Model the fold of this input.
Amino acid sequence: MRIIKTDDYEKMSKEAACLVASEIIENPKTVLGLATGSTPLGLYKELVKMYEEGKIDFSQVTTFNLDEYIGLSNTHEQSYHYYMNNNLFSKINIKEENTYIPNGLVVDVDETCQIYEKEIDEKGPIQIQILGLGENGHIGFNEPAEQFSKNTGEVVLTDSTIEANKRFFDKKEDVPTKAVSMGIATIMKAKKIILLVNGAKKAKALKAVVEGEITPQVPGSVLQLHDNVIVIADKEAAMYL
Ligand code: GLP
Done:
């Protein structure tokens, strides 16, 4: 793992944007794996800025998002579809048909997950997978468990994740309790992984991910087994490293 410590959130976002932009410039048909949550918002802002300045072209880029809540429509303000459209896709020249996000409103979740996994295999490999980190060490929506999850599948959110994400909803009861998420094995298939972590709240989880035992109780610790991971953390998140 390569660790880049930055002074603040803005610098973390800029470092990540430079890495993503270099990849797109080198390979205009690149496939990106994208994350949601508050952590990558700064990265997306930087990418939009670079696009507006004519530095990057998304016309041939394909994206796969990590996860989506089950039960929220694509237009629900807290759905990850809405988030991606609002924060990135509507502001750049990416083709809608090249943006993949799991559908959280399907009847047959298993079938949808299998199709999503197949699409990643067909269009992939994902060249850069962006990840955030949950306070409990989760990546995507892969929660602490007895075993590392494999492919894209349905997950039940832990109380800690619901608690952490309730800030985006009117009340805790509105946070969906289930999601569709790329599995750990899906994430590990990416050629390069960029883990973004900011804020003191994530410091313990980051230490466990980077320096702790590799265990499904800390899902992000599996990244120690990947040969091309770049962790970009601001100084608060990196304080125990
Ligand atoms: C969420 C998402 C993850 C995200 C993480 C951290 O629940 N499913 O993809 O990386 O938790 O979120 P945030 O960046 O808002 O702290």
Residues 223 and 229 are 7 Å apart (CA to CA). The chain has a mean pLDDT of 96.
